[in-house]
């Protein structure tokens, strides 16, 4: 199993969280004032590939490779928590090509 980790808005990291832990972390985005935090997003990083996916309270998701400064982040808007969880599960399994095949935008929306 590949190593992956999540980070919450307070900077707390969980190593290889299970599906319920991921679901709980995404649910924190719906708490009152979640979008007012200094870092309002929650993220998951697939450590071997350095691909990271951040989810914001607004439903915006960013997908980027932390080791490749030349590759601009990808963006998606209006992502449901259910869909975000599915994408996190794909990322946790290292399914990078599958994720890159989704309908991303290079433009920050």
Protein described:
The protein is of the alpha+beta class and about 110 residues long. The protein has one domain (about 5-100). The protein has helices spanning about 20-25, 80-90, 95-100; strands at about 5, 15, 40-45, 50-55, 60-65, 75. It has a six-stranded antiparallel sheet with strand order 2-1-3-4-5-6, with helices on one face. Helix 1 packs across helix 2. The longest helix has 12 residues, at about 80-90. The chain is globular, with a radius of gyration of 13 Å.
Relevant terms:
single chain, 3 helices, 23% strand, 109 residues, 6 strands
Give a quick precis of the structure.
The chain is of the alpha+beta class and 109 residues long. It has one domain (4-100).
Q: Helices, strands, pairings?
A:
Elements: E1 4-7, E2 13-15, H1 19-27, E3 42-46, E4 51-55, E5 61-65, E6 74-76, H2 81-92, H3 96-100
Antiparallel strand pairs: 1-2, 1-3, 3-4, 4-5, 5-6
Whole-number mean pLDDT: 94
- Percent strand equals 15-25%
**What's the number of domains?**
1
The ordered H/E elements are: EEHEEEEHH
Alpha carbon gap, first and last residue: 34 Å
Round the Cα radius of gyration to an integer and report it. 13 Å
Give the % helix. 10-25%
Number of helices: 3
SS content category: alpha+beta
Which overall shape is indicated by the principal axes computed on the Cα atoms? globular
Count all strands and give the number: 6
């Amino acid at each position: 199993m590949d190593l992956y980790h999540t980070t919450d808005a307070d900077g707390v990291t969980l190593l290889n969280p299970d599906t319920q832990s991921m679901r709980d972390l995404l649910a924190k985005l719906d708490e009152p004032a979640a979008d007012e935090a200094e870092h309002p997003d929650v993220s998951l990083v697939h450590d071997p590939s350095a691909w990271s996916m951040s989810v914001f309270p607004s439903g915006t998701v960013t997908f980027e490779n932390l080791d490749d400064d030349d590759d601009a982040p990808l963006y998606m808007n209006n992502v449901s928590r259910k869909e975000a969880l599915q994408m996190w599960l794909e990322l946790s399994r290292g399914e990078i090509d599958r994720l890159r095949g989704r309908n991303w935008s290079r433009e920050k929306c």
